[in-house]
Each structure stands twice: as structure tokens, then as C-alpha cells.
Amino acid sequence: MSILQVARIGNPVLRRAAEDLSRDQVVSAAVQKLIEDMIETMKEYDGVGLAAVQIHESKQIAVLEVEDNPRYPRKPRVPLSVLINPKITPLSEEVEEDWEGCLSIPDLRGKVPRYTSIRVEAWDRHGKDLNFVAADFHARVIQHEWDHLHGKVFLDRMRDLSTLSFLQEFVRYWADR
Ligand code: NI
């Protein structure tokens, strides 16, 4: 396994829609290795999610996991999951604002509105169908990753930039609010 370099904002790969995978592609050795490397890279940098475009691969793959994470303390656990070609449908109009950061936009945080409940249809890392409901922080992470797979980043989703903060200022002025 390898730790991969993370593309930062300004790199055009982050602004392109990623390509769907076929089931044959999913089970190929190359894509299986890519998934392993994405998981290792996400863990190395304390991410709660990582999209393939962030490691310069324009493919519809996202990995996520929320454990005890120093970048996002006190968040509910989400088991390690791999989402391929994900589709998401909001289950209500309810939206909540909360803080997000991104490994491709280092050291910045901002408040982003997201649907609180979504249905997720995707394939797992073996190409098997997944269909589940995600809520709250889990739903937030999936919407953030879905955005990456469509060339968007959290800055695009902020209602305005008034909460945009460097991490040090976030901790000083905003954490726990
Ligand atoms: Ni991100």
C-alpha cells in the first residue's frame, strides 16, 4: 500500500466530474489497489473521507470512515466504507449548517449547509449494490465526497464566506459553537 499525494485546490482535477466505473473495472487489481491506497491516505492525514479525484484519479470512488478523529473530535462513528458511483437523494428539505474542512483545502474551515437525511445508492468495493439511509454527520460526509466526484468543494456550498476560518482561528473563536 502507498500513501498518495493529495491534490490541493487550484489543481484542475478537483474541478472535473469523475467518470463512472464498470463492475469489471471495480474488481480489477488496479482499482482494488487504488481503493487500498485511498484508505491508507485518508487515515494518514486524519481525513473522514477521501474522493479519488483528490489523489488525481478522476474516478467515481469515495472512501469514508469516522473513528476517534483528531480533526473531528466527538463525532458519531461511521464504519469504513467504500462508495462507487454513488447517487444521493435528499429524504426531506431539512438542512443543517455545520463546520467542514477538506484535505484539498488545508487549514481552512467553514460552515456548510447540508441535507440532514439522504438515501445513498452505490456499489461497494466488490461492485455489490448498496442502498441505505444516512443522517446527520454521516450524511454530511457523503454529500461532501459526492461533491468532490462532481467537481465541487465545500467552499462552493457555503451560503457566504463569513465563517471561513483558518484552523487556528477556528479553534480560538469558533470551536464548540
Ligand atoms: Ni474534501
List keywords for this structure.
single chain, 177 residues, alpha+beta, Peptide Deformylase, five-stranded antiparallel sheet, three-stranded antiparallel sheet, 5 helices, 26% helix, globular, binds nickel (II) ion
Write a short abstract of this structure:
The protein is of the alpha+beta class and 177 residues long. The protein has one domain: Peptide Deformylase, CATH 3.90.45. The chain has 5 helices and 8 strands; from the N terminus they run ααβββββββααβα.
Largest sheet composition: 5 strands, antiparallel
Tell me the number of helical segments per DSSP (H or I, 4 or more residues long). 5
Number of strands: 8
Q: Ligands in the structure? A: nickel (II) ion
Structure description:
This protein has 177 residues and is of the alpha+beta class. It has one domain: Peptide Deformylase. It contains 5 helices and 8 strands, in the order ααβββββββααβα. The strands form 2 sheets. Strands 1-2-3-6-7 form a 5-stranded antiparallel β-sheet, sandwiched between helices. A hairpin with a 2-residue loop joins strand 4 (95-102) and strand 5. The longest helix is centred in the N-terminal third of the chain and has 16 residues, at 29-44. The chain is globular. The mean pLDDT is 95. It binds nickel (II) ion. The site of nickel (II) ion has 5 residues, from helix 3.
Question: What topology emerges from the helices and strands here?
Answer:
Layout: H1 23-26, H2 29-44, E1 49-51, E2 61-66, E3 78-90, E4 95-102, E5 105-115, E6 117-123, E7 129-135, H3 136-149, H4 154-157, E8 165-166, H5 167-174
Antiparallel strand pairs: 1-2, 2-3, 3-6, 4-5, 5-8, 6-7
The structure holds nickel (II) ion (NI).
Nickel (II) ion is lined by residues 102-104, 144, 148.
